[in-house]
Amino acid sequence: MSQRTLHTLFKPKSVAIIGASNKPKRAGNVLMKNLLSGGFSGPIMPVSPKYEAVMGVLAYPSIQALPLKPDLAIICTAASSVPGIIETLAQFGCKVAIVMASGLADEFNEDGVSLLAQMQQFADRYGMRILGPNSLGMILPNLGLNASLAHTSALPGKIAFVSQSAAICTTVLDWANNKGIGFSSFISLGDANDVDFDELLDYLGRDSKTDAILLYIDSVNEKRHFLSAARAASRNKPILVIKSGRSIEGGSAAKLHTGGISGSDAVYEAAFRRAGMLRVNDLIELFAAVETLAHSRPLQGERLGIISNGGGPAVLALDELILGGGKLPTLSNEIYQRLNALLPKSWSGQNPVDIGGDSDAKRYAKSLEILMDSDDLDAILILHSPSALGESVEVAQAIADTINQHPNRHKINILTNWSGEDSAYEARKLFSKSRIPTYRTPEGAVGAFMHMVEYRRNQKLLQEVPQSIPVNIPANSALAREKLQQAIEQGKSVLETHESSAILNAYGLKTIDTWFASTPEQAVEFATEAGYPVALKVQSPNILHKSDVHGVMLNLTSDIEVSQAANAMIERVISLNPDAKIEGLIVQKMALTAGAQEIRVAVANDPVFGPAILLGEGGSEWQPTKDAAVALPPLNMTLARYMVIQALKTQKLRDRHLPRGLNMHALCVLLTQISHLIIDCPEIATLDLNPVLCAGEEITLLDVNIGLQQEPVDNASRLAILPYPKELEQLASLKNGSKVMLRPILPEDEPKHLAFDNSLSDEDRYKRYFGVRSKMTHEEMAVLTQIDYAREMAFIATAIGEDGEETTLGAIRASIDPDNTEAEFAMAVRSNYQGQGIGKLLLEKLIRYYKDNDTLVLTGFTMFENRNMASLAKHLGFTVTFDMEERLINMHMDLKVDK
C-alpha cells in the first residue's frame, strides 16, 4: 500500500497513452481527445508504431522512444499485449498505469498463467501500481486531467467519487454536470486488482481538496484494510456508499461483474455502519446525497423547520421526517408571534409553516428570515408548488438573497424543493448556481436531510464512552478452548446444548440444565433427577429441524410421559427414514417462561468480513438479511446497545413489553459476552442460540448449536476489526518497587485518561503539546482512546490506588503511515510520578511493538526544554539531533534489524 506512489497517480506531471489512435471510437482515440480537451498542462505523449502523430501530437513508436519517463501511463491496447507493456513501462521507470482492457483473468499464456497474474507479477517486481484492469480511467478536474473514456469531463469541486462500475461513473457524471456539481477526483476502479478502495480512502481522507467521499461498491477484497481506512477517513469527512447486490441474485451478479467475493448484504451494512460511513440504497438517494454534500455544511443539530405554500407537500415532508426517525421542533412563542403578524390568518399556526398558496417572493423571504432568526432550528426546508402567480424564479431569487444576507447563514442548513417540471426548472437551476441544495420532491429533500442526521448520529455514537462489562462476568478462554479442541480431536463438527454448556458457562453465559440420554430408560432417570416438568428432544444427524418429526416435547410432568414421548419420537424418525441414526435423547429442565420473551442470537461466518453477530426474533427459519440486525465483533457495551437499538428500530426485534421481557442492559451484556467468546475461540465457526429466554436481568440459553472449524484458523486474519490485543498486557515494576500494568488503551479508559491529561502540570502540558493547550474536549479524547489497533497504538501505565480504582500514570502513543514505513510517537507521564522509570518502560514497550510489526522507522520530536526526554531516547538507542531553527529535538530509530 504505497501512498507515495498514489501521490504520483493523483498529481502526474506527464502522461503517456499506449495504443493512441487516430481512428474514431477507438479507446486510444477517445483518450487522446479527452486529454487534449481537458487543459492538462504537462506533456501528453502518444505511443503508437502506426502513426507519426495522433490528433496533431507527435507520436513515439515505442515506450523506449519516449523523451522522458511518464508519471502516468494509460494502456488502451487489447488484453493480450498488456502484461508485456506493463513490464516494459516498469523497466522504463513509470510508476503508475491505468489499464482499460477487460478479460485478463480469462486469458492465459503458454505456461497456463493468466494474463492478470502475469501483469501483476511484472508490476510487483518493479514497484509499479495499476488502476484497473477494466477501468474507465480517472478525471482530476483541478489538474485539467481527463484520463478516461467518459463521454464528458467533470467540473471542479470538493467531492471525490470512486466506483467499481464504469456505467455508474458515466451516469453520475452526466447528472452532476447537469446540476453544476463538481468533483475533486473521479475514479473508476474497474476490477481493483491492485489499487483498491482502502488506499484511495487513505489518500482522499487526507486530501485537502476533498470534503466528502462517495463510493460505489460491488465487493470488498481487503476487509481489514478497507474498514481501517474508512474509519480513519470518516473521522474527518463524510463517506457515502452505495452497495450493489442487496438481493441474493444481485449479489451473484455483482460477483460476476468484478470477480469479487459475494458476502451477505446485511453484514456489509453492519461494516459500513461500524466504520462511520453512511449507506444509500439507490442512485436516487445517491444523487440527493451528492446534492447535499456539494452545497451543505455539517449539521449542528437535528431540528428541522418547514416552510410551504401548500398543505399537501408539507404533510408529505412531515410524514417522511417522522417515519424516518426525525424530529419536528415546536416554534418558540416569539417566532410564532412574528409569523402571526406577517402571515394571513389562515396560516397553519405551527411547524410546518404553511404560508398560503398565494404567497409571493416577499412573503417567502420574510418568513425565511424569521425562521433563520430562531434558535429553535438547525435546518430549514423550503417547499414551493406551482402557483397561478407564476413567481417561481422570483421566489427562488428572493430566497437566495435572504440566505446570503442573513447573519446566521453559516449556522443553519437550508434545503429547497421546487415541485413541478417546466415551471420549476429555472428555479432549481438558480439554486444550484447559488450552492443551495435543491430536490425534485418533498420526500427527496427530507431523505437528504435524514442522511445528514444519520451521519451525525453515527459519528456521535462512535465517540460515546462505552460502559464496561460487569467485572463479575467470567471469561475463561483456556477452559473453553480446551473443550473445543477436545471436540475437534474427537471428529465432531457440531456441538449441541449438552456438549456446549461448559464452554458457554466459562464466559458467564447461563444455559438450561441439560442431560444426554442414550436410551428412553436413561431419559426417565435424568428427568426424575432434573425434577418435573422437563423438555425432551430427539438427537439424530438425519434431522435438519426437530419440529419436522415432532422431535421436541415440552412440559412433560411424569416418568410415564417421558417414556412414551421418547419411544414415540424414535419410532417417528425411523418410520420416516429406516436408515436414520438415533444418537440419543436430550432432557432439559423446563424454564419458567411466564412473562419472559424468546429471541434468537447467532454468529455467522461471512465470506468477506468473517464472524458476524446476528440478533432477531426466535424461530427455526430466518434469513439474516431480512430477519436479523447484524454487527461485527469486537463489541463493547455501547456498540451492543447500538445493535439492540437498530434491531428494535428496524423491527428485527420487537419489545413485547412482557412483565419479565427484554432488559437493555442484560441483552447488551449477553452480546458483549458472545463477542468475547468468538474472539477468544477461533475454533468456533458458527453459533446459534435459539431460543434465548429473556426474563429481565436473567437471560438463559435454551438451545445451543456450535459449529466447529475443522482446520486451524489464524484468529487475527479471520476478524474484520482487530480486537483489543490482550496479549500485549504486561506487569512491570517501578524503581520504588510498586507494580504497574502496561497495556493498550481501551475506549472505556476515556474518563481516566481525561483525568490523567488534566493532572499534567502546566510545564508538562507545554512540553507535551508544544505550547499552551486548553483542556481536552470529549471529541478529542474519543479520538485518543478509541483507536484502531490495526494502524495505531497507545500504551498506558496504570496502577490500582488506595481506593481500589485504576489510575493512569503515563501514556505513549504512535500513529503510523499506511505504508507501515514510519511511526511517530509522543509520550507523557503524570507529573508526580516522574523519575520512577515509567517513561522508559513505555518507550521500550513501544519499540518492541513496532519492531514486531515490521515498521521501518520510529521517530519523535520534543522541545528544547525537554532534555530528559532526549536523554532517555538516546539511552534507548535513538539518534538524537537538534534543530536550532525550530528549537526542536529530533529522535530517530531505525527498526529494521535482524531478528
The amount of helix comes to 25-40%
How much beta, percentage-wise?
15-25%
Uncertain residue ranges: 249-259
How many helix segments? Answer: 29
Instruction: Please provide the count of β strands.
Output: 38
Q: Give the integer mean of the pLDDT values.
A: 91
Computed Rg: 32 Å
Query: CA-to-CA gap between the ends?
Result: 24 Å
Strand order of the largest sheet: 31-32-33-34-35-36-38-37
Major sheet: size, sense and barrel closure?
Answer: 8 strands, mixed
SSE-based structural type: alpha/beta
Label the overall shape.
globular
Can you tell me about this structure?
- The protein is α/β, with parallel strands linked by helices.
- The chain is 37% helix and 23% strand.
- The chain contains 29 helices and 38 strands.
- An eight-stranded mixed β-sheet has the order 31-32-33-34-35-36-38-37, sandwiched between helices. It has a seven-stranded mixed β-sheet with strand order 9-8-11-10-12-13-14, sandwiched between helices. Strands 20, 25, 26, 27, 28, 29 and 30 form a seven-stranded antiparallel β-sheet that branches.
- β3 and β4 form a beta hairpin.
- α6 packs parallel to α7 and α12 (333-342) runs antiparallel to α13.
- The longest helix is centred in the middle third of the chain and has 21 residues, at 442-462.
- The protein is globular.
- Mean pLDDT is 91; it is low at 249-259.
